[in-house]
Amino acid sequence: MHYYYRQQGSTGSVPPRPTIRAARAEPLYGWVRDSLRREILQGVRAPHERLATEKELIEAFGVSRITVRRALQELRAEGLVVTAQGRGNFVARPRVSQELRRMEAFGETVTSQIGEADVRLLSLSETVPSPMVARELRLKPGDRVTAIRQVQHLRSQPVMVSESFLPLAIGRRIFSRDLDMDTLTVLKNRLGIGVRGARIEIEACHPEPAVGAALALPVRASILKLTRVFMDRSGRPFDVECLSFREDTFNCKFRTDPNEEYL
To answer: What is the DSSP string of the chain?
Structure first.
């Protein structure tokens, strides 16, 4: 179901009101909320796009002002809609919070908070690693790695570029896999590699040209870069993962363990 409204200054005719909802126990505000949510999550409504006014929504759905306000209130609580005083309601840019203590793939985080992420493979190759990657993976001189670069979209918007560097013994097992999900999910769920822990670094920096282009960033824009070095159950590093986020789509959370002492 789509709703429509006349833009200011438009001379076109107003399309007919949406069909009446099917009879159900769900309250009216839930019907309005779910209809708007569906259009936002499916990318019909783009980030920063202005939604219809309360009056236009009342007319489009045939409900009361209280119902519309309750629906918008819940969408704001979900982080899907933001309100600008005196300007109206707008579609919020997708934003994800990552709990750093959880050894969770970005796709798993997205699914639990927003919905299914669209993962697209940019490149898959064997290459000479950087000194940092070689050191973290404890490689010998001359060893090569499998390098995987992916971009993840939320609501049709690019929000994160991931780069994973794997020892060839693991990376060559990836080549036969359908990379329709992020690399860490493939390693954990399809190859059965358990994660014991990780070393994590976060920095704000300017992206490499290829990363900036994949994220559709303006020149000299900054990103948040999250680097995680994962260890398997034996304590051996098996994946150096570099995640480059748009600054307006990501935040980190860290929760201390009450059973640990922090100096």
So the answer is: -----PPTT--SPPPPPPPPPPP-SS-HHHHHHHHHHHHHHTTSS-TTPBPPPHHHHHHHHT--HHHHHHHHHHHHHTTSEEEETTTEEEEPPP-EEEETTS---HHHHHHHHT---EEEEEEEEEEPPPHHHHHHTTPPTT--EEEEEEEEEETTEEEEEEEEEEEHHHHHHHTTS--SS-HHHIIIIIS-----EEEEEEEEEPPPHHHHHHTTPPTT--EEEEEEEEE-TTS-EEEEEEEEEEGGGEEEE----TTS---
Both structure tokens of 67: 């119902």
Q: Could you tell me which residues come within 8 angstroms of residue 188 by beta carbon, excluding any fewer than 6 positions away?
A: 105, 194, 195
pLDDT digits (tens, 9 = 90+) for 108-149: 776 666 566 788 999 999 999 999 999 999 999 999 999 999
Q: Encode pLDDT of 234-250 as tens digits.
A: 999 999 999 998 877 77
Helix axes 28-41, 54-61, angle to 10 degrees: 110
Average of per-residue pLDDT values in the chain: 81
Cβ(160)–Cβ(247) under 8 Å? no
CB atoms within 10 A of CB 252: 13
What would the two tokens of residue 49 be? 């796009």
